[in-house]
Amino acid sequence: xxxxxxxxxxxxxxxxxxxxxxxxxxxxxxxxxxxxxxxxxxxxxxxxxxxxxxxxxxxxxxxxxxxxxxxxxxxxxxxxxxxxxxxxxxxxxxxxxxxxxxxxxxxxxxxxxxxxxxxxxxxxxxxxxxxxxxxxxxxxxxxxxxxxxxxxxxxxxxxxxxxxxxxxxxxxxxxxxxxxxxxxxxxxxxxxxxxxxxxxxxxxxxxxxxxxxxxxxxxxxxxxxxxxxxxxxxxxxxxxxxxxxxxxxxxxxxxxxxxxxxxxxxxxxxxxxxxxxxxxxxxxxxxxxxxxxxxxxxxxxxxxxxxxxxxxxxxxxxxxxxxxxxxxxxxxxxxxxx
Length: 338
Ligand code: KG4
Ligand code: ZN
Known about the structure:
It is a single chain. The chain is α/β, with parallel strands linked by helices. The protein folds into 2 domains: 2-116 and 300-316, Nucleotidyltransferase, domain 5; 128-294, 2-Layer Sandwich (Nucleotidyltransferase, domain 5), CATH 3.30.420.40. Helices cover 43% and strands 19% of the residues. The strands form 2 sheets. A 5-stranded mixed β-sheet has the order 3-2-1-4-5, with helices on both faces. Strands 8-7-6-9-10 form a 5-stranded mixed β-sheet. A hairpin with a 2-residue loop joins β7 (140-147) and β8 (150-156). α4 packs across α11, α5 (162-172) crosses α6 and α5 (162-172) packs antiparallel against α8 (231-259). The model has no long low-confidence stretch (mean pLDDT 96). Residues 111, 115, 136, 269, 302 line the site of zinc ion (ZN).
């Protein structure tokens, strides 16, 4: 089964074609970083307009790369929730138009379900059940994955997402947007012990919740007191700030994997590309005896191969979306106890 995936929930226009939920024939991403960089964050209306310009060329490029025509596609998967409403609508209307003209089945995909499906494209995907740590620009959650499409969110962030903590920190340090990558890069030559940040959420041992706003405030106080450093001191500050974010993510993941009695953990979303988090979780897994699965960095950030992978599993279960499928800007994953 050849599935065309389309993703446009934020600032990446992406299309991909995968076969039987495993083999990636094409994976095309058009980033809008240049459009939003001067504003220090994503401007929804500009994002929607850029998606309109990019979506047809990106779908066409994916078909060309796969050497296929639309008639040879067996299903269309599209992100319909959550995300920015204008950007979501562009991908959704494109997917609906393709489904309508080709008569092929359409399936709507939750963006976070897509992130969790990225790792299923890897040679050794995690077995079920497992724990998923989702760390993106808009979300930070720990999710119990019982099976494809059967997930329970155990806890999420109370305030900022991990990606926001990186991006807002980077903005404060004048590092540009999106800042996660810049902090990661500078941190690699810095001393993570140089600046002490307070340890977050030390009381909430048994919850899968996160909080990053205090950390951001600590960085603000540090910058107000000492100014923005340059050279090695900037690398040291980035390394220390990154280490504090990673410490909380790793500590909560360790506690939750133990509480849920699981042995496999996947990490997904843009922040899963962070070198400190990748190393920190692998070290924790080796120490505590759980196995860690992380997609390559380009499949951690937004892409359409992950949407096609998640859509494939839904289509195989016989699920279909109607042409009345709507964009839902805010839609939580199923929560524990609800
Ligand atoms: O998953 P994603 O592409 O979009 C959302 O669904 O939000 O995640 C984007 C986020 C941004 O906050 C970006 O700064 C962060 O992922 N990010 C990183 C790295 N690469 C991307 N954060 C830390 N280190 C990185 N290497
Ligand atoms: Zn995302």
